[in-house]
Automatic annotation (TrEMBL):
Names of the cofactor(s): L-ascorbate
Domain of life: Eukaryota
InterPro entries: DIOX_N, IPNS-like_FE2OG_OXY, IPNS-like_sf, Iron_ascorbate_oxido_reductase, Oxoglu/Fe-dep_dioxygenase_dom
Name this protein carries in UniProt: gibberellin 3beta-dioxygenase
Keywords in alphabetical order: Dioxygenase, Iron, Metal-binding, Oxidoreductase
Pathway assignment: Plant hormone biosynthesis; gibberellin biosynthesis; Hormone biosynthesis
Biological process per Gene Ontology, one example term: gibberellin biosynthetic process
Naturally occurring in which organism (per UniProt): Arabis nemorensis
Amino acid sequence: MPTMLTDVFRGHPIHLPHSHQPDFTSLRELPDSYTWTPKDDLLFAATPSPPATGENIPLIDLNHPDAANQIGHACRTWGAFQIANHGVSLGLLEDIEFLTGSLFRLPVQRKLKAARSETGISGYGVARIASFFNKQMWSEGFTISGSPLNDFRKLWPQRHLNYCDIVEEYEEKMQKLASKLMWLALSSLGVSEEDIKWARLNSDNNWAQAALQLNHYPVCPEPDRAMGLAAHTDSTLLTILYQNNTAGLQLLRDDIGWVTVPPVPGSLVVNVGDLFHILSNGLFKSVLHRARVNQTRSRFSVAFLWGPQSDTKISPVPKLVSPFESPLYRSVTWTEYLRTKATHFNKALSMIRNNREE
Ligand SMILES: C=C1C[C@]23C[C@@]1(O)CC[C@H]2[C@@]12CCC[C@@](C)(C(=O)O1)[C@H]2[C@@H]3C(=O)O
Ligand SMILES: O=C(O)CCC(=O)C(=O)O
Ligand SMILES: [Fe+2]
């Protein structure tokens, strides 16, 4: 039996201090445990932010006839892009933003009723990657994988069914969009469905798995010394992020440093995850990103983390591997990769990399 995403961490417990979550609104000063220095994260001060160069992440109109090539170029250079005319209605984006806001505005004791367990994937708590850092992040999260019914019933005894409908519709639309984006990006490399039949990544939409990560970054008394979500790559094929109209997401570009993604109302941010980097034999960049916080506005984001069915082996597309070299990576399922990431964090990719003779 393939492991469902909901069971990925069964037998792989991780201890995260959800219950020590402070009441962010009452803090007038940044506690020491929330104060970050370059010692706590080597990338903390990679460059001043925002950078002076004015380089911006591409905004791609999905109705543009050259959208596939623009997406391919963005995946190779930035590992991310924003999209307009994506077909997801403004009403649905507003609904998911409303749901996210009302979830995080609940009293902390209520949120803790749906706390993520040590071996679970779904529920309320700090980011999974928190265990790799000495300092706490200035954020709270809620992960949905599979039906949110049980958790939502605990959070909103009266209104949970409405909210479940919103999540279901949002996931359905995101699933279709993610599949479309993947095929557009692959087509820019000359890869067709026929070329990777073995991976069962066909566009019938029934093969994928996903998690929805709701993030809240409260107003922070000392944003320059705090970290909303520390630098990481996603384990996904693709991640589609909706951010409310408040800046905070930053991408790391090798030669520039941290670049802030400006919120464009109604648009969505897409980033390449580790599995797409593997599938493209390293051509698409799994971009390091993080979230910073600010002193005046609280920020919400909703990440749709999208990957293959759990028993699907992902490996570099043979067409993209030179006949004189071995593929850059060994094959791996999403389950195997998530477990490797849960133990080795940012070393996970290098652990499945093939050693090549130079
Ligand atoms: C499917 C998943 C990807 C994710 C781990 C998870 O099991 C559910 C949450 C996801 C998330 C969201 C915030 C950043 C991240 C690194 C984390 O700690 O939890 C990602 C994980 C990932 O992409 O590896
Ligand atoms: O909130 C953001 O801008 C980033 C969120 C993110 O990276 C994630 O949920 O994986
Ligand atoms: Fe992320």
